[in-house]
What does this fold into?
Amino acid sequence: MRHRAPDWAFLLASSDAPEPPPVSMPLRARAAVHAARALWMLRKHGWGPAHRYLQQLRPVSGSDRYTALPPPVAIRLARQEILWSQLVLRILEPNGLCLPRSFSLAVYLSALGLPCEVTVARELCSSNPEYSFHSWAELHGEVLNDTAAVKQGFKVLQRVSAHALAARGGSTHPAQR
It folds into this structure.
């Protein structure tokens, strides 16, 4: 009998990629602590100190096996780990909009050794000035926490990632490699 993928597997956009190595609970916990610390900093001190925290972040010990994953495998792993960063977000920022959501995910994944970046952008044609800015998280140019089409309606203002990870493999965004 052939193994059937779980019904939710279609949610993993790159599910045709090989199965990534599992992430241990202690490693997830250390990455979640970084995400919590970063969200607290964003809430208390604003974007300036918070984005510097992400830039200076180094992967937690034990995450070496994830830093060299091929992009499709890394993206699959990132999609599998979204839940853990969002649990931290919902505890600390239950009504967090796009910036805390994207920032939490980028910090969490960067702590695991994946070169994730936060993209901050302005809407090209704004119908509601209250929501004319948006942010999302990207890994190897793939949008993780929004639709891929989000890139078309916005002008990118800033991309922020962990310098330690960018130095290992260059920029995580294909246009900047």
Notes: The beta strands are 116-123, 133-139, 142-143, 154-161. The domain at 24-176 is CATH 3.10.620 (C8orf32 fold).
